[in-house]
């Protein structure tokens, strides 16, 4: 496709800008704001640590509890005299990475179960959906905490734990979508030309359900970041000295009266990241739904 | 109608079995296992550990243990706490009222506020109020509950000194007013997310109803607008919210756990975290099961209620 675009006249090369989905997305101001905020946040986390005067583990013992804007400590220091800005950005790398990877894994699990359950409506579908119901009956924080408490919490384990407890909503969405798609004529046509069930499920039905999956993916990142923050805050997630937004808040809790900025700053970062993804998800939902033009 | 109820009951029973199976397997297959707490004690010999495992029935095949445990659930024997040997059900019952008080007050508050915000947003669609409510709800959903709690404590307790920072009552003073003042912050923090969710759903439910013919008919008959709203629109818009209330239980329970931790509230969430720290398997298992049963019952009740309240559901 890219090579084909290359030979297009200049006037056509920008034709993708006229894509109705993109146009609808760009019209959603909050979604665009979300994209801008999350881009800035990611760039800051990736490149920011190289521009600071301190790394996230170096201890400046004479400047403990420095408030923001003390010397080169732009966001102050914590109880050990570590630079808050450096910790915040390094924590962002971990928190965002955990959220993103957990989303990828739970999308795979959720889509797989959703597609199969929607395609085989009989006892396989019903059985799988009861399984989904069972997982949904546990408050996810409870389940994540149990799993995290009994395993050695490394970022990878935490990612896996979050993934295996947040795929259920995706399954439900995909199942409903597939169930309606499989009644459509193109499915019948595919079956008539002798396509196997696997082909129909993953080559015909799944690509047609991609819109809701993308929306769910965006909202899943938001929830995964929140879940990581919850369990790290409660002490069962990412373990110090490795920083994460959640465990920075855990450490800040006892100094709330003395150094409130230690609690306020990481919380703002979490809120900013999660809000961005929620805004983007909302914009995508409107953009991928062609009917929103009619409103 | 009976068919619909039976079907729903059957589904719930299947889910209940799956829930217990998942919970049991997660706990028992996790590294360490139920004996990890005892194995930490250096004064224990292998023979003693073996004896304890034998006594607790941990030497039997996992499936036998599961069936034994599951069948005892129904006669009210949920095992005994590793920590103090008390029956799990009575340990949970001791912490339940605090959680129910917190959840109940906060849910009631969020339903009232959420309904009001949602209906107003729908009636004045795309107004300044509606836009603010929409953006506000999305931001509220993105704020970590515990962080909001910390900020609230900092501002209202440490900075202004108006409200207590934690606990359910002051020792020595357990008057109603004392409970109430301790309840304010946790309830507000827990309500934030629920108001956001409730108002969003209420807005779209109201929008679904407000353009329907019966609303126009009522207006045409000359019924005042306010009365149309309260007697025709809101009553119908609240119907799907019954289902939503059932579906929200896990979120509220999870939120309660985090809120209780921040405010040292002596409820089930605190108990759960304490038990995790002690590897108190029977209690952890009990709380997992208890919350799952609560969620299942809530959903079931919501589905039955909507069948009673909305005849269209019964026929479908």
UniProtKB/TrEMBL annotation, chain B:
It comes from the Bacteria. The keyword Transmembrane helix applies. InterPro entries: BPD_transp_1_N, MetI-like, MetI-like_sf. CDD domains: TM_PBP2. It is found in: Cell membrane. PROSITE patterns: ABC_TM1 (PS50928). GO terms for cellular component: plasma membrane. The chain crosses the membrane at residues 12-30, 100-123, 135-159, 179-198, 237-263, 283-306. GO terms for biological process: transmembrane transport. Residues 96-306 form the ABC transmembrane type-1 domain. This is Diguanylate cyclase. The lineage of its organism: Bacteria, Pseudomonadati, Pseudomonadota, Gammaproteobacteria, Pseudomonadales.
């Amino acid at each position: 496709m890219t090579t084909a675009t290359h030979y297009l006249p200049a006037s056509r090369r920008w034709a993708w800008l006229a894509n109705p989905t993109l146009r609808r997305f760009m019209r959603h101001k909050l979604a665009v704001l979300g994209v801008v905020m999350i881009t800035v946040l990611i760039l800051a986390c990736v490149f920011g640590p190289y521009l600071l005067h301190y790394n996230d583990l170096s201890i400046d013992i004479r400047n403990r509890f420095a408030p923001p804007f003390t010397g080169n400590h732009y966001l102050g220091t914590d109880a050990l005299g570590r630079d808050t800005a450096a910790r915040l950005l390094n924590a962002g790398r971990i928190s965002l990475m955990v959220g993103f990877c957990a989303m990828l894994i739970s999308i795979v699990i959720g889509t797989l179960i959703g597609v199969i359950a929607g395609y085989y409506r009989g006892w396989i579908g019903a059985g799988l959906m009861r399984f989904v119901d069972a997982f949904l009956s546990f408050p996810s924080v409870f389940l994540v905490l149990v799993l995290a408490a009994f395993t050695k919490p490394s970022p990878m384990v935490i990612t896996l734990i979050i993934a295996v407890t947040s795929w259920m909503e995706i399954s439900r969405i995909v199942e409903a979508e597939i169930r309606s798609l499989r009644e459509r004529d193109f499915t019948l046509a595919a079956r008539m030309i002798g396509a196997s069930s696997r082909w129909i499920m993953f080559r015909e039905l799944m690509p047609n359900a991609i819109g809701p999956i993308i929306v769910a993916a965006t909202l899943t990142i938001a929830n995964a970041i929140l879940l990581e923050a919850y369990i790290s805050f409660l002490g069962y997630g990412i373990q110090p000295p490795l920083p994460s937004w959640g465990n920075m808040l855990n450490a800040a809790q006892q100094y709330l009266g003395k150094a409130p900025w230690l609690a306020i700053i990481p919380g703002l970062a979490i809120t900013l990241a999660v809000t961005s993804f929620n805004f983007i998800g909302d914009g995508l939902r409107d953009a991928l739904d062609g009917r929103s033009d009619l409103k | 109608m009976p068919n619909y109820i039976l079907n729903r009951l059957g589904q719930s029973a299947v889910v209940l079995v799956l829930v217990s199976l998942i919970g049991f397997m997660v706990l028992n297959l996790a590294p360490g296992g139920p004996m990890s707490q005892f194995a930490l004690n250096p004064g224990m010999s292998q023979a003693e550990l073996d004896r304890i495992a034998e006594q607790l029935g941990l030497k039997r095949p996992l499936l036998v243990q599961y069936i034994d445990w599951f069948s005892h659930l129904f006669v009210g024997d949920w095992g005994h706490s590793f920590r103090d040997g008390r029956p799990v059900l009575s340990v949970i019952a001791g912490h339940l009222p605090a959680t129910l008080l917190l959840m109940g007050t906060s849910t009631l508050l969020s339903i009232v506020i959420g309904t009001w915000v949602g209906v107003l947003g729908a009636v004045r669609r795309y107004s300044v109020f509606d836009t603010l409510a929409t953006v506000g709800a999305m931001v509220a959903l993105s704020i970590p509950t515990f962080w909001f709690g910390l900020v609230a404590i900092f501002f209202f307790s440490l900075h202004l000194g108006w409200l207590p920072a934690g606990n359910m009552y002051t020792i020595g003073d357990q008057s109603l007013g004392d409970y109430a003042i301790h309840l304010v912050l946790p309830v507000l923090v827990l309500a934030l997310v629920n108001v956001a969710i409730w108002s969003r759903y209420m807005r779209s439910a109201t929008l679904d109803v407000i353009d329907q013919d019966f609303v126009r008919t009522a207006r045409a008959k000359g019924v005042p607008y306010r009365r149309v709203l309260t007697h025709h629109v809101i009553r119908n818009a609240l119907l799907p919210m019954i289902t939503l209330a059932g579906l929200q239980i896990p979120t509220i329970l999870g939120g309660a756990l985090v809120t209780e931790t921040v405010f040292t509230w002596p409820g089930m969430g605190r108990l759960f975290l304490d038990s995790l720290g002690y590897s108190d398997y029977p209690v952890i298992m009990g709380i997992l099961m208890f919350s799952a049963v609560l969620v299942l019952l809530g959903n079931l009740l919501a589905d039955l209620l909507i069948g009673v309240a909305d005849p269209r559901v019964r026929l479908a």
